[in-house]
Amino acid sequence: MLFSSFEFIFIFLPIIIILFLFFNKKNRNIFSFVIIIFSLYFYSFSNSSWLLILVFSIIFNFLVGKSLIKNSSKLILFLGIFSNLLVLIYFKYTNFFLENLNNFFSIKLNYLDIILPIGISFFTFQQIAFLIDANKKKIKNPSFINYSLFVSFFPQLIAGPIILYGDIIKQLEKKISFRFFKKNFFIGLFIFNIGLFKKMCIADTLEIFSKPIFYQAETDQTLTFIECWSGLISYSFQIYFDFSGYSDMAIGLAKMFGITLPINFNSPYKSNSIIEFWKRWHITLSTFFKHYIYFPLGGNREGIFRQLLNILFVMTLAGFWHGASWNFIIWGGLHGIFIVTNHLWRILTKSWFESKKLNIIKVLLTFLCVTVAWAFFRAETVNGALNIISGCFPFFNSSIFLEYSEIDYYLPYIYQIKWFVLLFIVIWILPNTNQISIYLKSPSFKRGSLSIYKYNLNNSYIHLVIISFFLFIASFPGNQLNQPFIYFQF
Q1: Quick one: which of 18, 152, 223, 368 is 20 to 30 A from 381 by CA?
Q2: pTM for this structure?
Q3: Would you give the distance in Å from CA 45 to the centre of its chain?
C-alpha cells in the first residue's frame, strides 16, 4: 500500500486516526496493539504471504535478543545475524548469484521463482542492529509489544528511516506516547502533505521525462548529448524528490501519532563534497553502515590506507544492499572512489578545501558526480548506463550537436531547462522540511485563538490545515500516475 494511494489516504489513514482519537488518554497498550495489527495489514496489503516472513522475523529476533540480553554470546549473536542475512540473501540475491554462475561457468541453472518481500532490507538491518545492541547490553528487558511496534510501525516499515530500538523505546515508554496533541497532529499533517506534493507533482512528473531516455539507452537506440543529459538530470531530480517526499510523509505520519522519527534526508544537493552528501542522503543508512560495519572493520584507527580501503569496501557493500545487480555494485563502488578521492584531496589541499571561496563550484561538482553515478542506479543494465554516460561525455564528437537542426526538436528541452532552473532554486535556496518543522516548533510560530465549531484552535494551526488542504488538492493530478516510491524496491 502506497502512502499516496487512495486506499491509504481515504480508508486506512482515516480509520487509524479515528481509533487513535478514540483510545486517546484511555489505554496506550491497547492502541499499541491496534497499530501493530494495522501495520501488519498495511505490510501484507500487496502480498499476504509476506506477512508470515515479517511475523517470523519479529518473533525470531525478539527471542534471540532476549537471550543475548540475559547472557552475551558471540556464537548466538553470529547465528542470529547469519540467520537474518541468510533470509535476505535468499530472497534478494539468489537469482543474481545463479545468473553470474551461469555466465561465468557457461551452465544453465534454473532461476527460482522468488518475489522480493517489500522492505525486507530495512527491517532486516534494523533487527540486526537490535541484536548487536542487545549483546552489548545497550537494551534492557524489551516487551514483545514494544519490540513488534519498533519493527512494524507502518510509517517507517517499508523504506525506513532505519531506527534503533534504544532510540524509539525512549519515546514508547513515555506516558505521553500515542497521545493526541494538536501541535504534533497538525505539524505532522502539514509535513505529510509537503511530502505528498513532492512525490505526486514533482517526482512522478519527472518520471515522464527520464523513463523514455533510459529505455532508449537499454535498447541501444541513438541518443544525443541533450537527450542524455535531459534524462539523467531528470532522474537526479526525480529520485531526490521521490525520496525526500517519502521521508517527509513517513516523519509526518509518525508525528501525527506523537512519535518522532530520525531525520533521514537533509538537502543533500546542497553538499559541497561527497563526504557531506552522505551525511545528508539516507542519513540512517549511512549511520548504520558507519557504526555496525565501518567501525568494526577498524574505521580510521589503523592508518589512512586502511581507512580508505574500509570506505571503499563499505560503500561497495552499501551499493550491493540497494539491489542484486552489478549496476548497484558499480554505483556503490563509484561513491566509494569519490569519497576516497575526497579524503585525499582534503589532505592535499586542506586550507583551500576548508575555505568558503568557490563554494558554488564545489556544490556543482558534487552534484555532477552524484548525477553521473545515478546512471548506474537507474539503468537496468551496465550497458544501458554506459550508453547514457557516453552520450553525456562524447569527447568532442561534434556530430551529436548537428544531428538535429530543427528548432522544434529543441523546444521540449527548453521547457525542461526552465523546470530544472526552478527545481535548482527549490533545493538550493528554499528551506527544507526539517528547517520548516523546527520553525513550527519554535516560539516565533505565533499563536492566537480561533473558535471553530466550539473547538479552540490556534490561528497558526488553522493556517497549517489550510496550506495542507491546498497541497493535498494540488497533488491529485499526479495521483493518477501512482508510481511506487523508488526505495520501495529495496
Answers
A1: 368
A2: 0.90
A3: 21
